[in-house]
Design brief:
Structural class: alpha/beta
Low-confidence stretches: 1-8, 515-528
Strand content: 15-25%
Number of helices: 17
Largest sheet: 8 strands, parallel, barrel
CATH superfamily of the largest domain: Aldolase class I
Radius of gyration: 25 Å
CATH architecture of the largest domain: Alpha-Beta Barrel
CATH topology of the largest domain: TIM Barrel
Number of domains: 4
Shape: globular
CATH class of the largest domain: Alpha Beta
Mean pLDDT: 87
Length: 529
């Protein structure tokens, strides 16, 4: 079935196509585990996303398994898989999405001169025939087919119109014209959609879609311009993650239409009160922190420090806030948390911060909160966020820290005694190094042999004060691919060990998921827009 825009009141419906699990996961270091993908998909489904692009099934057995499982579990959303123009890609995609109540094949092909010459090494007439063939094959599997003209904003307009017309004639029900490299401007993108829809004779038989990258910081503006030009589907990601500088942020396009309905007279099916929750879940799953001043879901989006601003807010919140915190899932009420706080108060604080934990996760987080409260005089919201984010991120880890003792000082060498839980087995070793952190990492390497290379080691304080929690970020690379993980603890050395092990756990999970497909080589993800 095709997800088509419907009228709601006097406003037209804009379909939200979320590609966090496909384009978002292609962001270097943002790979999610199988369980994390299922959790994110479930939340996207429940918050009202129309189409969930669950992955790129031909890329690996792990990606196929995730798309297939999400398709089985979906309740409301259309489940979409990505495929290139190759018949095997399309057939594999169809197999992955088959269990879904409603499913879509999204197939793409480059149409710009530079892509056709250097990437495809084909002439325009060959590409044109490929468009017809790929859409026809996809349509043989499902009546909901989306075709994308990769690098559409740098494609010659006459050729783009020919390809769009051919794709619709072959059975495409959605036409995506992506700004693959984030090159266009709002005015250009508006005119492009307007021109294509006017020049293609069968354009009324398909829904047009935007897919914008943020290389020049205009992804959201371009997406909204595309809608004004006639597109009725926006492809976007939670927190704007994605290739290079990312994609248009789902939370921003949704709130742009909700807050500025006078300029964007459209509606979506998104429950905006779940935006903050979704942002935190994706940030924890990918270990990609949300910048403090990020629109809608950033920590400072509803924070006011200036005396002038505070005075205005006390008199009337509308003086400095164009939307309420509650409208995006943030509560204004604040609890002062400390070692005397009970479990109920802790749970209430988590709800204020946008977290929904299972009973086991809540209990584990509460125990760690109590331990932290005994070590810190004052617990800030940021402390709790760091603590819970780590709890969520490490829920499925097979390697965990049991104990760590470090001897450091001016008289070297520094040494570390480390005990780990590896798949339920307790192991211990002692190592030395050129500094305490080096000694810790050497100890980890002795207990968990690996060939990963340390690309980033970064420390910052979560809050102010000498008793502040340290948050450590570690990036490891293996076979040309990188993962990032965070660890938080009042002891910087303990946080360092947690972060390093978090990255190792991700690499281990990736090795298990990225198996070579039967009868072929492993295929790395490719950007469809």
């Amino acid at each position: 079935m095709t997800a088509s825009p419907k009228a709601s009141s006097n406003k037209e419906r804009v379909v939200i196509f979320d590609t966090t699990l496909r384009d978002g996961e292609q962001c270097p270091g943002a790979t999610m585990t199988h369980e994390e993908k299922l959790e994110v998909a479930e939340l996207l489904d429940s918050m009202g996303v129309d189409i969930i692009e669950a992955g790129f099934p031909i890329a690996s057995e792990g990606d196929f398994a995730a798309v297939h499982e999400i398709a089985k579990r979906s309740k409301n959303a259309v489940i979409c898989g990505l495929s290139r123009a190759a018949p095997k890609d399309i057939d594999r995609c169809a197999e992955a999405i088959k269990p879904a109540k409603r499913h879509r094949i999204h197939t793409f092909l480059s149409t710009s001169p530079v892509h056709m010459k250097y990437k495809l090494q084909k002439e325009p007439h060959e590409v044109y025939e490929m468009v017809i063939a790929q859409v026809t094959r996809a349509r043989s599997h499902t009546d909901d087919v989306e075709w994308s003209s990769e690098d559409g904003t740098r494609t010659e307009i006459d050729f783009l119109c020919r390809c769009v017309e051919a794709a619709i004639n072959a059975g495409a029900t959605t036409i995506n014209i992506p700004d693959t490299v984030g090159y266009t401007t709002p005015e250009e993108y508006f005119n492009l959609f307007k021109m294509v829809r006017e020049r293609v004779p069968n354009s009324d038989k398909a829904v047009f879609s935007t897919h914008c990258h943020n290389d020049l910081g205009m992804a959201v503006a371009n997406s909204m311009a595309g809608v004004m030009g006639g597109a009725r589907q926006i492809e976007c990601t939670i927190n704007g993650i994605g290739e290079r500088a990312g994609n248009a942020a789902l939370e921003e396009v949704v709130m742009a239409m909700q807050v500025r309905g006078d300029k964007f007279p459209f509606v979506t099916g998104i429950d905006a009160t779940m935006l903050t929750r979704a942002s935190k879940l994706v940030a924890a799953a990918t270990s990609f922190p949300v910048q403090y001043n990020k629109a809608i879901v950033g920590r400072n989006a509803f924070a006011h420090e200036s005396g002038i601003h505070q005075d205005g807010m006390l008199k009337n919140a509308q003086t400095y806030e164009i939307m309420t915190p509650e409208s995006v899932g943030v509560k204004q009420t604040s609890l002062v948390m400390g070692k005397h706080s009970g479990r109920h108060a802790f749970q209430h604080k988590l709800q204020e911060l946008g977290y929904e934990l299972s009973d086991n996760q809540l209990q584990d987080a509460f125990v760690r909160f109590k331990a932290l409260a005994d070590r810190k005089k004052q617990i800030y919201d940021e402390d709790i966020e760091a603590l819970v984010d780590e709890e969520i991120a490490t829920a499925h880890d097979r390697i965990k820290v049991l104990s760590l003792t470090v001897i450091a000082g001016t008289m070297g060498p520094q040494s570390a005694t480390l005990s780990l839980d590896i798949d339920g087995q307790h192991v211990t070793t002692q190592s030395t190094g050129n500094g305490p952190v080096d000694a810790i990492f050497n100890a980890i390497h002795a207990l968990v042999p690996h060939d990963a290379k340390l690309e980033l080691y970064q420390v910052h304080a979560v809050t102010e004060g000498t008793d502040a929690q340290a948050e450590v970020s570690v990036r490891l690379s293996e076979n040309g691919r990188a993962v990032t993980a965070k660890g938080a603890d009042p002891d910087t050395l303990v946080a360092s060990a947690k972060a390093y092990l978090g990255a190792l756990n991700k690499l281990t999970s990736r090795r298990v998921r990225e198996q070579i497909p039967a009868g072929g080589r492993r295929i790395h993800s490719t950007d469809a827009g």
